[in-house]
Amino acid sequence: MAGKQIAGHELVPGKTIKDHIHVGGTQFQVPHVLLCGEKEGPTVLITAGIHNAEYIGIQAAIELSNEIDVSELAGNVVILPLVNCSGFENRTMSLVYEDGKNLNRVFPGDKDGSEADRLAHVLFEAFIKNVDMYIDLHGGDGYENLMPFVYYLGDTDCEEIARSMMECVNSDYCVRSRCRTGGAYNLASVHGIPSILIERGQMGTWSREEVEADKTDVRNILKYLGVLPGEHVRYPKTELTEYNYSAPVAGCWYPEKKAGETFSEGEKLGEIRDYFGQSVYTEYAKEDGIVLYQCASLNIVKNGPMLAYGVRLD
Predict the structure, then answer these.
(1) What pLDDT score does 314 carry?
(2) What is the pLDDT of residues 124-148, one digit of tens each?
């Protein structure tokens, strides 16, 4: 009997496979690495570069794909170190270069759609729906200031395992998400695949310390899942509900806070001014919270991301 297959490859114990998968109707070739353990266990997917300027996860995934020893694995680890290659090569921040779409807003995709739709469709059909657990590596975009935290999706059949995976991430905060559409890890969770999204890094930069932190988190999760040997560590967290706000107008943005800073209800969070320096919009806090991430560039785009904050769950 044939064994489990991912992206057309049989997962043969002890084998490492490095290949590309073609996305039909496009020029895309998505790199992937299959690390097939010598012992039985779950299959875990790790993706990075869905947003192509979030470099911490990309570098961490590349290094993990070369460092994980298949002889130690009980199960399989599937790594996609850079999903949106065309965006990376054309430095488009969150967007797929060819159609200008945010890849993490179009899942499950469409095999007959535009480039982002087709890419999302292949990612779901060839990888996500064929694994047992999923870790998606993200960070602040090229214009975003962000504090490290982790998402998991609430109200799903796999929430308990996802929560335990989340507790293996070394951060002070987590978000119990309510969003069930558009994103890769959200879609996986809705389909019963325990999934989390780790946020670390910001502003189109990367550092050795942050890459090592991502790698340590991934290994810690794999230990919890029994895929890697050793004891895992759990990190207590403050659980938050997330609120996102887009810019109502274009102009120059002047935030009052940095990511990770707390604020009180009624406090000024930022202001948009026109090109004469006159205020055209001011954002005030609607409740007590903490800034998760926000636009940190001078320019701000109408209807584009302005800030996201978390409110503590009771």
Answers:
(1) 72
(2) 999 999 999 999 999 999 999 999 9
Identify the bridge partners of residue 134 per DSSP, sorted by sequence position: 45, 195
Q: Which two tokens stand for residue 157?
A: 């059949």
Q: Alpha helices, DSSP H only, in the chain?
A: 55-67, 85-90, 115-122, 159-167, 184-190, 208-224
Q: Band of the pLDDT at 1, cuts 50, 70, 90?
A: very low
Q: What is the DSSP letter of 90?
A: H
How far apart are the C-alpha atoms of 252 and 276, rounded to whole Å?
A: 10
Sign of the Cα torsion 90, 44, 161, 215 reads negative
Ramachandran quadrant class, 262 (left: phi over 0; alpha: psi -120 to 50; beta: rest): beta
Q: How far apart are the first and last CA of the chain?
A: 51
**Partners of 176 in beta bridges:** 152
Is there a contact between 145 and 191 (Cβ–Cβ < 8 Å)? no
Q: In one letter, which amino acid is 132?
A: D
Tens of pLDDT, residues 243-293: 999 999 999 999 999 999 999 999 999 999 999 999 999 999 999 999 999
Return the number of other C-beta atoms located less than 10 Å from residue 4's C-beta.
13
Contact 134, 44 (CB under 8 A): yes
Residue length, the chain? 314
Provide φ and ψ at 136, rounded to 5°.
-110, 125
* Run of H or E residues at 294: strand 289-295
Q: Which CATH superfamily is domain 7-236 in?
A: Zn peptidases (3.40.630.10)
Give me the residues paired with residue 74 across strands.
Answer: 39
Fold for the domain defined by 242-312: OB fold (Dihydrolipoamide Acetyltransferase, E2P) (2.40.50)
What is the Rg, in whole angstroms, of the alpha carbon atoms belonging to the chain? 20
Q: How far is CA 314 from the centre of its chain?
A: 26
Rounded CA-CA distance 137/213 in Å is 12
d(CA 18, CA 79): 10
Domain boundaries, the chain: 7-236, 242-312
